[in-house]
Amino acid sequence: MLAVQLTEWGTEPRLREVAVPEPRGEELLLQVTAAGLCRSDLHVMDAAESSFDYPLPLTLGHEVAGTVIDAGAGADQSWLGEAVVVHGIWGCGRCRNCARGRENYCLTLRPRADGRLAPIGNGLGYHGGLAQAMVVPSARFLVRTGDLEPAIAAPLADAGLTAYHAVRRHADVIDESAICVVIGVGGLGHLAIQILRHFGAGRVLAIDNRPETLSAALRLGSDAAFADLASAIPELDEGADLILDFVGTSDTMESAARALAPGGRLAVVGSAGGRLGVGKRVGLAAGWQVDAPFWGARSDLAAVVEMAMGGTLHVEATTYPLADAVDIYQRLRAGTVTGRAVLVPPPLTGRTRRVEASRQISSVAREVRR
């Protein structure tokens, strides 16, 4: 099968031919139907060898939708034939955070003693979904997507999940009188605007320096859109209750901190390398919170999928063939991708009968459950 793999640190990935993996034990094999591209991939590509404890070659892709076409002997066979999206954080399932349903903060995902980042999940330490097929360790990392289009489902695994988790953590300050700000209306920010509306935010302001993106923000539900936060200050009344920074530079973080209302929250999601000095009496409003949420739990992913299936969350996605991966990554690096870029692999040859058989098995299983 074809796979987009990182073969050397600090280089662009390559389209290669590799063996189709065989599921064992509790593993499930997906035929990948769509896989989103993310700026996180660029951080992995550009990293020094000492940064990640990831074996190479590594198939990239942590936003993955697919169909379950095969299962190991110990796997839950009822998933065969199901359309799914993959929860890309493969926690241990045993530590105290996993037991709390906070798998995205699994204690086994901490950096190694030497500072290298440990494998997290598909495309981030384990082979991902920029391929025609992918193995998932267990059904607990899957969420059913029903008839949702794969190109819509795939970005929910990171862009949708991360935005939802960042908003949900601050649901206690989101109501009809809340003033919320989204900085960076890209692949995640355009979803955050809609999720804030879903949570009942009274007023949502969008900040982005790209005119076409600001137009999209207004269309997707923001009340106003500005090229920078300074221009939005007159709209903030006595400050913002919640600011979501999907850029994460020092400039965006510092300007956001100054724009908070007393008791306001700043959630920094973007990873552009910015730093913010926090402390008492450093110019911040009284009673502030600064948050750095990470991805999201499986329950958050299920909630995002439900929103999309119900038509209350619209993903701005453009599809491309898997073979165009390197070119689209370059466009992502240049900042010319609007919304989410999603790659569609060609179907696996020789697997058609197995896919159809899996669907028939799944259909029978559903009838039995009824």
Largest sheet: 7 strands, mixed
Q: Helix and strand string, N-terminal first?
A: EEEHEEEHEEEEHEHEHEHEHEEHEHEH
How many beta-strand elements?
18
Q: What structural category characterises the helix and strand content?
A: alpha/beta
**What is the strand content?**
15-25%
The oligomeric status of these chains comes to single chain
Helix content: 25-40%
Shape: globular
User: What's the total helix number?
Assistant: 10
Q: Termini, distance in Å?
A: 37 Å
Spans of at least 5 consecutive residues with low confidence: none
| CA gyration radius, whole angstroms | 21 Å
Family: Belongs to the zinc-containing alcohol dehydrogenase family.
Catalytic activity: a secondary alcohol + NAD(+) = a ketone + NADH + H(+); a primary alcohol + NAD(+) = an aldehyde + NADH + H(+)
Keywords: Metal-binding, Oxidoreductase, Zinc
InterPro entries: ADH-like_C, ADH-like_N, ADH_Zn_CS, ER, GroES-like_sf, NAD(P)-bd_dom_sf
